[in-house]
Amino acid sequence: MPPRKTSRPPPYAARNQSSIPIPPALRNLLRRDKLRTIVLGFLGFLTIIWLLRRMGGGSGGAAAVIGSGAPVVIVTVIDPRANSAWVEKVKRNREDYASRHGYATFFPNNTDYPLKSSPLSWAKVPAVRHAMALNPRATFFWYLDSTALIMNPSIAIHSHLLTPARLEKLMIVNEPVVPPDSVIKTFGNLKGDRIDVVVTQDKEGITQSSFVVRNGEWAKYFLDAWFDPIYRSYNFQKAEAHALEHIVQWHGTILAKLALVPQNLFNSYASGPAHPKNGQYREGDLVAVFPGCDRDKRNCADEMQAFFDVLEGKNKDSQN
């Protein structure tokens, strides 16, 4: 007895195409719809690729544009509670310098980032990352605390400090990362074109009132690693400063990209625990820093006033 036919034929059963003839007009319409679907799908694919390249999703596209923007972006984080007149003078100090050398500036507030219970001083790290997103074509990002002033505007930091040949001459090698006797020391065989972060030391350790990172994927990794929530939860005594020392000492991938240079090149201290060999501010230095002037009932505006006066005198002389 033959098997009974089911009312639900298997999905792979062939259908009799000839039983339902398709009019020529409908056949042409179906062909046009199919072609339109293919074309739209291809255009959609190209659009996605273009968007990814614009957002830096394609590493080749991101690398291709770096260096075609500002040579340096100066990043200074502002405390919105600070004296507004002093803040404006600090901003103008950076803007005048940037205008002279074709640089850019970025002044976010320290409340712009989700720090939760971490000290507001941590804001410098996401601020530099933010500046990189806003200026993907820039070459270097120079973070400079609001407690610092650029005192020698004639010095262009990108040529004064950041060229590979210059870095190789200036790097301090085989130096304890944390003075005086850290067993982890700066590498002695680094090439200038391999350097992606430039820092200095004061008397107590690596400083972060003034540092430079080179734009690129490694810089993003470095900043993300530094800002990792686990380090912010460690409750380091000096917050992001001790976190920086930690990752430099215990992550060889970071130490291998780091150049330690003399403090007076771009981080001289007008007051505070300067490096005994080369950290005290002298006339002609690029930067004067007043570490801690925004804490402990001190007043940055008062401490900086004499230096503002010097800068104003220089401006008047240059105009005459």
TrEMBL record:
Gene3D superfamilies xrefs: Spore Coat Polysaccharide Biosynthesis Protein SpsA, Chain A
Q: Name one GO cellular component term.
A: mannan polymerase complex
* Entry's Gene Ontology BP terms: protein N-linked glycosylation
Q: Where are the transmembrane segments?
A: 35-52
| Superkingdom of the source species | Eukaryota
Family to which the UniProt record says this protein belongs: Belongs to the glycosyltransferase 34 family.
Designated name of the protein = Glycosyltransferase family 34 protein
